[in-house]
Design goal:
Helix content is 40%, strand content 17%. It folds into two domains: 202 residues, 3-Layer(aba) Sandwich (Rossmann fold); 83 residues, UDP-galactose 4-epimerase, domain 1. Helix 5 links the parallel strand 5 and strand 6. The chain is an alpha/beta fold. The chain is globular, with a radius of gyration of 19 Å.
Length: 324
Amino acid sequence: MKTALVCGAGGFIGSHMVKRLKQEGFWVRGVDLKFPEFGETKADDFAQGDLRDPHFCSHVIDRRFDEVYQFAADMGGAGFVFVGDNDADIMHNSAMINLNVLEACRKRNIKRIFYSSSACVYPEFNQLDPENPTTEENSVYPAQPDSDYGWEKLFSERLYLAYHRNYGMDVRVARYHNIFGPEGSWNDGREKAPAAFCRKIAEAEDGGEIEMWGDGEQTRSFMYVDECLEATLRFTRSDWTGPVNIGSEEMVSINELAKTVMDIAEKKVSIKHIPGPLGVRGRNSDNSLYEKMLGWRASASLRKGLEATYPWIKQQVEKAKASG
């Protein structure tokens, strides 16, 4: 039986990856500071602890796993990443995790390790035009990420690639673009735009009002979590290191995102635009390199993903209302 380690298995993408690997017949160990918030973990073994601690890292990486997936990070949406208050924690915590996990894997002669970097590594100067952002993989240098979160991700990419060169480890580095779906943060200040608007519209009365940071003309693309898992597994099991984008090329404005959620919810809600943290003006995943190297492309539309996500968040809103 093949074995896998999922770091960050209590989080959104990590908990979904555990389920997917179990469906494929893997024996899976999950590790995180916390257990999954929205259901029992499917991992065969779950170690609760802090990957910033090298001794804990050595304890959980106590064997040679066939595949390691490193999702653990101190992260969140714009309200967490772009306000400036969390920069030191983001950089220190995530860098420590990556340093410890990589070194523990090297000492166990683990070869295949996937690292989830972020679209936030791309230079701000290439993402000023909301209609024509540039995120081609080789455009990352000269570097100028718009956040310390992006700088840490770029440092960690280089760390993984250095271990690949110096120690022969089969690292895989992917830059995720706004992954969303059920069982993710929706009301804790770390939620991203799709979850935030699903929550706001679920809470709003028909004909009511919701708030949105900025004018809503900033653009993004959003990838449904099942598509992300498929792209990640295909990439991890390929013979190519990357870095490569993993995301959707269906770019929408944030106003369009909110209106799609309203349509699914069958509610007409007005939008009040207010000042707030925004990130870059435009961003879209350039998937041409992934398609060239791996011959696969995502097919699920944003609407289809939101149709699966909105009912789940609406259910969470109703549960919270009933309990409090």
